[in-house]
């Protein structure tokens, strides 16, 4: 079992294409099923210990994987039962069923077990389980001590995070070969429990990856406040938001933070000056942040226009996202990072039927900017269609000001000269790590200060 951080994210079609390549190279469907079943059996044995196991097998190749795992677990001396939703419908799954020498119970009559393994349906599911089967499925999963899903919990769509019908929550999901979008995208991700990857011998390729720990280096002996990164934050109608962003930039590692506006207070280390457009021309500014608490009136628009007119790397957040035309950003020569939440994203780019990863990619292509599509399943996308998806974030981030903290964090990393896509990814990681360190019921001020420990951990 392998952790998911840094791993490729593949769609159902990409996974099937990878399997086709493996078969063209000499593998067979049966050999791939045998490899998957062996990996599943090893993982289940490690997780289940000596507890009795019930494996639920469906009619397709996911069910075939289940039959292989059941046979190997039984041969290892474990107490294993199999319940089938229906007869196998593929040649490989029929062969796997034939090699299982014990009884197969009707799914509707299966008694509960301490360990439930869901091998009913995998990445090919496009419709919900029938009502009776769904009710029985939920009963078996919810009464188990440990529930394990193979590839995906049955009832989840593979590529878009959608739940096709009511699906019980699982403790562990064993992803076959690679992470799928719904292991990360909500609401499906919330039902997968801990996701681990099983190597089934099928190399995969994708331009999407799971967010990983960034490789940020500490300052060297020759460093000073400006080489550490200078961040300029433009304040506005709600000065507290700009203060939070400035505080976050400081704690995320910026060497110098200039707060332009009327937002007094915060640490004395933050330099306060009135806003004037000429201040933005300082060549030492490594990143410029506009939007937190900016307002949406004519004065706010003038400040945003002044920021856009500079040649400084720019992070655009909050109110500024309501004032800008995404098609106009492409005309800017310097890098831009946009950080919209769901409502801001829709306001800028319109509603999309695409999954969140593809929607963020489309927005990045349209704007020419790095797009950080925020949420419990934050997606970072670049105009070249690279994408990174964060694992589920702390639910306690759903409090006022945490978006301002994220914007300041990204600006701090960007100010050091790091490539914008990497800076956005590192900022999201630091933000999430700070939240995990705080536990429940924190406020945004706490989150900004916790960035010190998150940054120090790298």
UniProtKB/TrEMBL annotation:
Binding, (6S)-NADPHX: 61-65, 122-128, 151, 241, 293, 341, 404
Limits of the YjeF N-terminal domain: 15-208
CDD domains (UniProt xref): YXKO-related
Enzyme nomenclature, EC number: 4.2.1.136, 5.1.99.6
Keywords: ATP-binding, Isomerase, Lyase, Metal-binding, Multifunctional enzyme, NAD, NADP, Nucleotide-binding, Potassium
InterPro entries, alphabetized: Carbohydrate_kinase_pred_CS, CARKD, Nnr, Ribokinase-like, YjeF_N_dom, YjeF_N_dom_sf
Binding residues annotated for K(+), in chain numbering: 62, 118, 154
GO biological process: metabolite repair; nicotinamide nucleotide metabolic process
Keyword ATP-binding: yes
Cofactor: Mg(2+); K(+)
Residues involved in AMP binding: 374-378, 403
Catalytic activity entry: (6R)-NADPHX = (6S)-NADPHX; (6S)-NADHX + ADP = AMP + phosphate + NADH + H(+); (6R)-NADHX = (6S)-NADHX; (6S)-NADPHX + ADP = AMP + phosphate + NADPH + H(+)
SUPFAM superfamilies: Ribokinase-like (SSF53613), YjeF N-terminal domain-like (SSF64153)
Gene3D superfamilies: 3.40.1190.20, YjeF N-terminal domain
Pfam families cross-referenced by the UniProt entry: Carb_kinase, YjeF_N
GO MF term list: ADP-dependent NAD(P)H-hydrate dehydratase activity; ATP binding; metal ion binding; NAD(P)HX epimerase activity
PROSITE patterns listed in its UniProt record: YJEF_C_2, YJEF_C_3, YJEF_N
NCBIfam families tied to this protein: yjeF_cterm, yjeF_nterm
Subunit structure of this chain's protein: Homotetramer.
Similarity remark: In the C-terminal section; belongs to the NnrD/CARKD family. In the N-terminal section; belongs to the NnrE/AIBP family.
Protein name: Bifunctional NAD(P)H-hydrate repair enzyme
Source organism (scientific name): Sphingomonas aliaeris
């Amino acid at each position: 079992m392998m952790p998911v951080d840094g791993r490729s994210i593949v769609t159902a079609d990409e996974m099937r294409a990878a399997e086709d390549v493996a078969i063209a190279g000499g593998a067979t469907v049966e050999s791939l099923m045998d490899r998957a079943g062996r990996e599943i059996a090893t993982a289940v044995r490690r997780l289940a210990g000596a507890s009795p196991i019930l494996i639920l097998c469906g009619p397709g190749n996911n069910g075939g994987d289940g039959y292989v795992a059941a046979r190997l677990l039984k041969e290892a001396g474990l107490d294993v039962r199999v319940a089938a939703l229906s007869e196998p419908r593929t040649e490989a799954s029929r062969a796997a069923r034939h090699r299982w020498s014990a009884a197969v119970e009707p799914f509707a009559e299966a008694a509960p077990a301490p360990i439930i393994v869901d091998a009913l349906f995998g990445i090919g599911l496009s419709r919900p389980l029938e009502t009776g089967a769904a009710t029985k499925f939920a009963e078996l999963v919810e009464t188990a001590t440990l529930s394990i899903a193979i590839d995906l919990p049955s009832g989840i769509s593979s590529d878009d995070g959608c739940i096709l019908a009511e699906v019980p929550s699982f403790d562990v999901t064993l992803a076959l070969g690679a992470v799928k979008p719904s292991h990360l995208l909500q609401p499906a991700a919330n039902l997968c429990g801990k996701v681990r990857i099983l190597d089934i011998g099928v190399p995969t390729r994708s331009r999407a990856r799971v967010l990983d720990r960034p490789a940020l280096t500490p300052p060297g002996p020759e460093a000073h406040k400006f080489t550490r990164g200078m961040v300029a934050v433009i304040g506005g109608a709600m000065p507290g938001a700009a203060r939070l962003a400035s505080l976050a930039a400081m704690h995320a590692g910026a060497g110098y933070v200039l707060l332009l506006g009327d937002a007094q207070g915060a640490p004395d280390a933050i330099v306060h000056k009135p806003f004037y457009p000429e201040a933005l021309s300082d060549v030492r500014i490594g990143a410029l942040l506009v939007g937190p608490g900016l307002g949406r009136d004519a004065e706010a628009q003038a400040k945003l226009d002044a920021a856009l007119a500079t040649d400084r790397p720019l992070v655009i957040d909050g109110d500024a996202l309501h004032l800008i035309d995404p098609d106009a950003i492409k005309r800017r020569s310097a890098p831009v990072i946009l950080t919209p939440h769901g409502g801001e994203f829709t306001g800028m780019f319109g509603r999309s039927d695409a999954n969140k990863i593809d929607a963020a990619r489309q927005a990045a292509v349209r704007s020419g900017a790095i797009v950080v599509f925020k949420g419990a399943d934050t997606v970072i996308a670049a105009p070249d269609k690279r994408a990174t998806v964060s694992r589920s974030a702390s639910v306690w981030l759903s409090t006022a000001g945490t978006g301002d903290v994220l914007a300041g964090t990204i600006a701090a990393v960007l100010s050091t000269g790091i490539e914008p896509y990497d800076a956005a990814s590192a900022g999201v990681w630091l933000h999430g790590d700070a939240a995990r360190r705080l536990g429940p019921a924190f406020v945004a001020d706490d989150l900004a200060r916790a960035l010190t420990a998150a940054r120090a951990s790298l």
